[in-house]
Amino acid sequence: MTTQEPPQTLSVSQLNGLAKQLLEDCFAQVNVTGELSTLSRPSSGHWYFTLKDDRAQIRCAFFKGKNMRVNFSPEPGQQVSVRGKVSLYEGRGDYQLIVDSMQPAGAGALALAFEQLKQELLAAGWFDTDTKKPLPDTIRHIAVVTSPTGAAIHDILSVLQRRWPSMQISVLPVLVQGEHAAQQIASAILQANIWQSQGRKDFDVILVSRGGGSLEDLWPFNERIVAEAIHNSALPVVSAVGHEIDFSISDFVADIRAATPSAAAELLSPDQSELVSKLHLLKGRLANSQLRRINRWREQLLSLSRRVRDPRSQLREQSQRLDDLEIRLQRQWQQTQRQRQQRLTAAIQQLSLLNPERQLKAKHKELSTLNHRMQHAMKQLLQQQRRNVKNTVQQLRALGPEQTLNRGYAIISNDAGTIVRDASMLETNQQLNATFSKGKAELIVQKLSR
What is the CA radius of gyration of the chain? Predict the structure, then answer.
């Protein structure tokens, strides 16, 4: 009897890790169609939603690096088709689908996504005509972004071989349908611009093209990533996608839209037969123009030959003219000298009138006169001031106390120097000071009589 070993004990995280690995190994790539539900877009840029049908649902995570390529605005309740891998969120043990891409489900949904992106880019100004780049006047090298095995490149080469065989063509091979087509088309447009900026290629224009097909077949040319590559291209871009009735987002964003690949080739190339006809026409016009010019020159030469005179006569005439010019020059020189002499004489006379010595003598005389007048005025003013002082002194003496004292009066004051005008201000035995016309005396009050 054998004993069975007990099963290995796992932690929760180990179990979830093993389950996640098993799911991802078994369901590495699945396509699922269902209805969007509970769609949320946090600030991280990731999308979290539930995909359901009438019987079941599954949680889905669509991370930022992948969902930026979605070219429509998904809404809850919308039927979509997603591709991704089945996984497990170990933190909660939730079974989920990690989404790599999303498309509307059905042709009607594709048309809705087309219209949504069209309106969005229209509002952003990507279709404005004033932002379109013109084609160069001369096109020598075309970068063709298309499938190297498709009908479009065959039509383009056939037209160019017929119209302008010397046109240089560089095919940048890409897928034109399928899930990786949009990324390859955008990368090829970017690569053409890089080569041009680095000088590795001398492209004049980029032609993005493919043949006709259903809306699903043409869908890569309706992807935002392709529209953005065309919008950011420094080289002008011509879009020729599908048949004449087909319109794609790349047609609206491109600088020029051609109805078909063949029409694009005709647009970008001159017609050699037309150029040959124009060359013959120009050749005839040039020959006629040269013939008319030669005839005109011949007539002018004959006319000039009739007008040519004897050179000796011309020499005599030129010699006489030279003598006349010499005489006129001498006269002019003499007249100029006389005018200069007259201006010099006038300047000397004017300078003598402005001689500062004369002005100094006149100013000195004027200064002497003013000085004499000032001295005389000062004497008169001094005499008048002396008279005023004398009169003032006499008035002061007449009004001063000296005259009163001379008549026998005295000025009585107390010890504080206050003049006594009333006996009521005095007290018995108070000492007083008496000022006379000549001298002073000290007094003592013995008796008061009020």
Answer: 61
Q: Are 435 and 404 in contact (CB under 8 A)?
A: no
Torsion of CA 254, 259, 262, 266, to 10 degrees: -70
pLDDT (average), residues 357-374? 84
DSSP 297-335: HHHHHHHHHHH---HHHHHHHHHHHHHHHHHHHHHHHHH
Burial of 41 (0-12, 13-18, 19+ CB in 10 A): middle
Cα–Cα distance, 125 to 228 (Å, whole number): 12
Work out the number of other CB atoms within 10 angstroms of the CB of residue 197: 11
- pLDDT for 2 beyond 60: no
Mean pLDDT, the chain, integer: 85
The model carries a pTM of 0.46
Residue 29's contacts (CB-CB under 8 Å, 6 or more residues apart) are 83, 84, 85
Residue 95 clears pLDDT 90, i.e. is over it: no
Average pLDDT of the residues in 249-271: 92
At residue 168, the 3 state secondary structure works out as strand
Angle (nearest 5°) at CA 222 between 221 and 223: 95
pLDDT score for 272: 73
Average pLDDT of the segment spanning 66-84: 84
Give all strands of the β-sheet with 168-173 in edge-to-edge order.
168-173, 141-146, 205-210, 237-241, 256-257
Report the C-alpha gap between 318 and 312 in whole angstroms.
Answer: 10
Rounded Cα distance, 210 and 188, in Å: 14
Where does 124-270 have alpha helices with state H? Answer: 151-163, 181-198, 224-231, 249-253, 261-268
- pLDDT band of 174, cuts 50, 70, 90: very high
CA-based end-to-end distance of the chain: 167
Measured distance CA(419)–CA(244) in Å, rounded: 137
